[in-house]
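Re: the multi-chain job from yesterday

Posting the exact lines I submitted so nobody has to dig through the queue logs.
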Amino acid sequence: MWMLTEIVALNTSAMTFYTPWFPKGEDNAVFTLEKVLDTINGGATFTVLTKNREAEGSEGTSAGSFSALTAPFYEAKCTDLEDLVRFKVTFTASAAGQGVIFRFLQPTWYDTAV
Amino acid sequence: MAISIPGRRVSYAETFYTDWMPRGGDCAILRAQALIKGADGGATVRISLETRTEQDAATTSMDTFHPSSSPKLLELTALGVKTAVYVATTGSNSPARGFQELVRCKISVFGGSAGDYWVVRIFPIQFFDNSVPSS
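And the result, structure tokens for all chains:
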């Protein structure tokens, strides 16, 4: 079950939010984002982060960013993932009340074949 | 929902189908990867979805939401992973957008010349349901 997530800006500060870390399914993945609504000035930015289990810190390293398929669908093609993966959402609203509604769909996990 | 094509060579003028499988949702993401390209003649690989009900053998070709322009299917023209998205709608579309009970893949080598071949794999289809109405 993938319910929509709504994030609303309460002020005009730069905001960063993370999903929980989750284990990678395979070494490579294509992640799909469905961004139903984005009223934030300049839009929200979605990034894929990865790190090993023993690594400290919240961000690890960037594994990729999302590019548009046909709106509202976006995908991030990521290779050589480490043990854990999470998504990062950043935005700076120009007014309180702007927001983004989105969900991540089931990823396609795969290992290198050739 | 896995499709059993872990990596298969497809050759010039070849067309084949997977088995029928039950749908896992109204919408789907289809992804395939071109692993090896031996298509100097210019052949591409076209992968599309077909749907039908359990009791009726009539098959309906499906229309992608992405890509949104013709050909509305997944076409491999270079090495790498490519994506097609199928979204159910509130209206009727022809060909269909939105699944009936059963789904299968159709794989065709399009164009090119004798000797052209590709090695491709199709990843398990990711089914999902609409989160908002789609016309």
